[in-house]
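Quick one:
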Amino acid sequence: MLLCLLLGGCDALFPTPIAKILEDPRKYADQSVSVSGEVTEVFSFMVIKYFVVRDKTGQIAVVTDKTLPRKGAQITVQGKVKEAFSLGDQQLLVLVEEGDKK
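Output:
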């Protein structure tokens, strides 16, 4: 029973389908989650670094201070879900990567 409680409360331990985050952003706001998928885009300009992770359910941008992964790499990322901006019915969610800088 203790194991069930522990597993049920640890969304950051198991990858969350990206579509679940995008479908219910309020549920995941400021929560630590883990996502897995392929890196489809990489962007770095001065102090802004991010990459896009796509799984079979959707895609999300990941803001990071770490070294950027290569495009096409399979990756698992842990971070907090944040709203980058919201304008009318348009919303951009990002995952801010957690952990030590590498």
